[in-house]
Amino acid sequence: MTRLAVAGATGAMGELIVQAAEEDGFTVVPLSRSQGVDLLSAEGLDAKLEGVSAVLDASQVVSPVAEDPVTPILKGAENLVAASRSAGVSRLVMLSINGVQDEGLRQFPFYDARRRQEEIVADSRLAHTIVRSSQWFEFALNPAAVVEEDDVVRAQNWQIQPAAALSVARYVVRAAAGDHGDGVVTVCGPERMRLPELTEAVLRHRGDERPVTIEAAPLPGMDNGSLLAPADADLVGPGLEEWLRDQGQRAR
């Protein structure tokens, strides 16, 4: 049984990755502070990677809206690459963001940090897969782009092609198994939409009737199609309506 180390295993996406990996028969080694691992200091990394075949990095060592996300993200990436090489890991998978390849979007420091992290992985001398994911349906009320008030919800006018987070989790786990090959791949959902549409659909599904107002996106790349699936992207379901139905069933 293959041992898969997951950085960021206790995060929202990390928990889904662990679930998908265990369903696929992996033995999961969580890399998190609660397990004695600190990516920024490298504490505990070497011991945890002993006997690990693949490493999947879904870590978020800093908030996307932090004043300086670049320094900690790159430090964590460098430590993880060094420890993976030392441990003889066969494959390194990084979960990135579709759009980081766009120069305009890299004005957003978090996107710039992820793109530079990709460069560290690409230069790692390890077999690697970089998975650029679209936004997830769960982004519908993300405070990075949506502000909730008592009587109104304000959503930035991003043009997106969102996927279900669980579908992305399953995709990156298969990347850890080598199914998607080496280099950069992109995974997106099947439907194009505007973020305010997604926000409104999620609110109405929850019985929340607050109006959704549209605000301009802070960068042109967020609303000009740069976040949509490129021609070579892999598209994964479900679509929005099916995802909403599934959320309702899970809540019962």
Automatic annotation (TrEMBL):
Keyword line: Photosynthesis, Photosystem II
Pfam families in the cross-refs: NAD_binding_10
Cited SUPFAM superfamilies: NAD(P)-binding Rossmann-fold domains (SSF51735)
A GO BP entry: photosynthesis
Domain of life: Bacteria
All copies of domain NAD(P)-binding, residue ranges: 8-153
GO cellular component, as recorded: photosystem II
InterPro entries per the UniProt record, alphabetical: HCF244-like, NAD(P)-bd_dom, NAD(P)-bd_dom_sf
Protein name: NAD(P)H-binding protein
UniProt organism field: Rothia koreensis
